[in-house]
Amino acid sequence: MTQILLAVDFEYDLILFELLSEIDDVTIVARPADEVELLAHCRTGGADVVIIGRYFPGLDAEVVAAIAASGVKVLGFGDDEHALADLGITTVVATDADAPTMAAAIEDIRAATVVPPRPAAPPGAVGGAGVIITVWGTGSSPGRTLTAVNLADQASRQGRRSVVVDADTVSGMVASTLGLTEESSHLASLCRSQTDPSGRGHQHSVPHAVIRENFHVVTGLTRPERWPEIRASVLEAVLQRLATAYEVVIVDISDRIDPDDDLADPFYDRHCATRAALEVADIVLILAAGEPIGLQRLVKLLGTPRAESVREKMRLVITKVRAGAVGHPAETRIREVLDRFVRITPDFLLSDDRSTADAAMLAGHTLHEQNPRSVLVGDLAAMMDELLPGRRRSRRSPGGRERRGAGRRGRTQRARVSQVGGPRD
What are phi and psi of 92, to 5 degrees? Predict the structure, then answer.
């Protein structure tokens, strides 16, 4: 007897019930209401096959992968085979199928062996046309958000169409750093549109805030407790989608990466967004503060399996470099410490310019807007040149300053920055 779970929307529920009632050796064990109930049934081993429709509540690629991991076979039902294939459902029965066709499909999928799909393209950058740079690092505030925002700013000033994405599910601060007063989450809107095929627009029509023509922002969660809205597989798809619209996608993430509770259901892991952003990245920047505690935390982080898993695409960045914290000369001292304990040389060292950083934060400006002659601005520009060499700088006005557009004169006026595309949160 084949045990069936029906996971379709109301429109197809009755059709399937009548169709399956004509097939021998098939029984419907449950009709779950959403993905939570569906996964619970799959993980208890109470079903052999799930018949699933495109509009089932909570359905996305991660749910399909979790069903497959439980050992239950997935059979799609509907007339939108391509949309179901995007979710990882390879076998689909049309809505006008008769009982023998459905019975054959159930029998075939029960006997089938799951084979990973053949890659559609040769190995290479996973982000598409653009480059995805994820900014990670230790605790103790090494300046992840400050670095992510200003790297995107520098990339745009060097002629690259850039976006900074706030994927920090613990304490997203990109909007506050740039003085954006919109209270909606662009990232949550993007994730919703990614999982709702009917809501997807053109790949270039994504919710974002405009700082300058080539510098955009995808704001993060407005409250930390909204983290379940950002799922790993959906976030990966969103970042890859952004990489088709931007030359540089810079992702700001939390330092926390492992589950809060090792015994909890991994499907509802708060920090899966951090791991997804690391997985999809072309370049991972690991930040640590250039001070004794920051360097000690970096040594511990570099010894973890998580850091080892991104070693091939890792670039090490030491921030807040100053002689007062480690001795003179600061750069030499830092290099000596890292060589002694982890045998690694930092790729970039960023100077400590607290006065400019504080003033920029207070005004809701980037570092370049606040003080284009800052030594930290120069460090970040050189860093972006080295990360993505070979691009021509954009033409600037005399004095290196760009003319600001409307709504760019201060923190309070940035509330007028428009959202483009997608539903408001």
Answer: -135, 140
**Side chain identity at residue 387, one-letter code:** L
The widest CA-to-CA distance across the chain, in whole angstroms, is: 83
Share the mean pLDDT of the chain: 81
Q: Are 133 and 315 in contact (CB under 8 A)?
A: no
The residue whose two tokens read 């005004």 is: 363
Tokens of 78: 């509907």
Task: Enumerate residues 6+ apart whose C-beta is below 8 A from 158.
Answer: 381, 384, 385, 391, 393, 394
Question: Where in the chain is CATH 3.40.50.300?
Answer: 131-390+409-416
pLDDT digits (tens, 9 = 90+) for 11-54: 777 888 888 888 888 888 888 888 888 888 888 877 889 999 88
Q: Sorting pLDDT into bands at 50, 70 and 90, what band is 369?
A: very high
R_g (Cα) of the chain, nearest Å: 25
Domain(s) of CATH 3.40.50.2300: residues in the chain: 2-111
Distance between CA atoms of residues 276 and 407, nearest Å: 34
Share of the chain above pLDDT 70, in %: 82
pLDDT of residue 260: 54
Other CB atoms within 10 Å distance of the CB of residue 139: 14
- Whole-Å CA distances, 269 to 4, 253, 275, 362: 28, 15, 10, 34
131-390+409-416 homologous superfamily = P-loop containing nucleotide triphosphate hydrolases (3.40.50.300)
101-112 pLDDT, tens digit each: 888 888 888 877
**Residue 367 corresponds to which tokens in the numbers above?**
């570092």
